[in-house]
Design goal:
The structure is a homodimer. In chain A, about 5% of the residues lie in helices and about 30% in strands. With about 150 residues, chain A is mostly beta strands. The longest helix of chain A has 7 residues. Strand 1 of chain A pairs antiparallel with strand 1 of chain B.
């Protein structure tokens, strides 16, 4: 197999995500949710599956991490959109926006850990809705992902 | 349905990713790939599906974007690892590392667009391997994701 076979193989083998946890937040609908975490989002809890607890063991209160979520209430067939749901703003291709409506609606949320309680982790300023699946947690590391 | 129903519903409905494109890179195996994009990675092309072309229309040469990939050669059953594949470094929970081996191996790559040719986009400093599925492209926007 040459590397050039990858597209056809990958197309025939869909990729399945397995949520590692879920968001517990007072935000329950898109209309009332802020567009970005730093625009007045509440603190929220991340409830992880007990099966991934070992992977969380080195997270600490005060750490800045990037939480990846699956924005399960998004529309996946949108390619052009009005940024920030504002019908007066010019349309943009979705890959030039942070709109949740896109082919693979993965949310990136830079947050600070404010509490840890076993497999539950409380974070500051998370704009994801209650019940949103959590896919991954990564430390802020790359020079272009740091403040 | 209350928001508290979300976990059980989500667990019974696995999430399927649909690659929007693939990486074309001289990097063909993990051993020779740098750990992070700014550590001497080559330029690479992203070849997108024609079906998503409209979503790319507002990307420009010189823009900084975050490319999300599916690290398809990673191991998904790892929860604790030696950072940077260095057996002498202390083990850490994977959610405190950027190791590709993790339950949902999604790669985050901050890159600069250096050329655009239809549904092909060339980017600087991408450490992903040739054939890696591309999931999403997002503008650098959040204050904590900017340089």
């Amino acid at each position: 197999m040459t590397p050039n076979d990858a597209p056809s193989n990958a197309e025939s083998q869909p990729v399945e995500l397995r949520p590692i946890g879920w968001v517990r937040s007072p935000l329950v609908d898109r209309k009332s949710a802020p567009k970005q975490g730093h625009e007045g989002s509440p603190d929220a809890w991340l409830e992880f599956r007990p099966a991934v607890l070992e992977g969380l063991r080195d997270l600490r209160v005060g750490s800045e991490v990037i939480v990846l979520t699956w924005l399960d209430r998004a529309s996946r067939d949108v390619l052009v959109t009005h940024p920030r749901d504002d019908p007066t703003s010019p349309e943009l291709g979705v890959f030039s926006t942070r709109s949740p409506d896109r082919p693979n609606p993965i949310g990136l949320h830079p947050v600070e850990i404010v509490a840890i309680d076993g497999a539950r982790i409380q974070v500051r300023n998370l704009e994801a809705l209650d019940g949103t699946p959590v896919l991954d947690v990564k430390p802020v590391l790359d020079r272009r992902l740091q403040e």
